[in-house]
Design brief:
Blueprint: E1 4-7, E2 11-12, E3 18-24, E4 32-39, E5 45-52, E6 58-60, E7 68-73, E8 78-83, E9 92-100, E10 106-109, E11 113-117
Parallel strand pairs: 2-11
Antiparallel strand pairs: 1-3, 3-8, 4-5, 4-9, 5-6, 7-8, 9-10, 9-11
Length: 119
């Protein structure tokens, strides 16, 4: 069972920056992708950013393009989300996700970390 633990959420003013981290326990999957999702109060969970271990390619939701950057440190088994120029509409619980296996049949989630953007 893979454990994912997010950290770095906080209260920040509009225009500010935060970096979220997601520490993963040891795993041996060679094919996997990791991503950040968020869920605002009263809304569904949405994909924010994704990175493929196989290709290293990244993708972003239109709402965060140019402001957020996803990256990973394989040596530390850690995923990051650098968030700049934060807006009140970025307020949400942010979740880390790992999908692994040839058909991404393994699916793991972290417990979430709260990001609040407010003056």
């Amino acid at each position: 069972q893979v454990q994912l633990v997010e950290s770095g959420g906080a209260l920040v003013q509009p225009g500010g920056s935060l970096r979220l981290s997601c520490a993963a326990s040891e795993f041996t999957f060679s094919i996997y992708a990791m991503s950040w999702h968020r869920q605002a109060p009263g809304k569904g969970r949405e994909l924010v950013a994704r990175i493929s271990r196989t290709t290293g390619s990244t993708s972003y939701a239109d709402s965060v393009k140019g402001r957020f950057t996803i990256s990973r440190d394989e040596a530390k088994n850690t995923l990051y989300l650098q968030m700049n120029s934060l807006k009140p509409e970025d307020t949400a619980v942010y979740y880390c996700n790992l999908k692994a296996g040839h058909f991404y049949e393994y699916d793991y989630w972290g417990q979430g970390t709260q990001v609040t953007v407010s003056s």
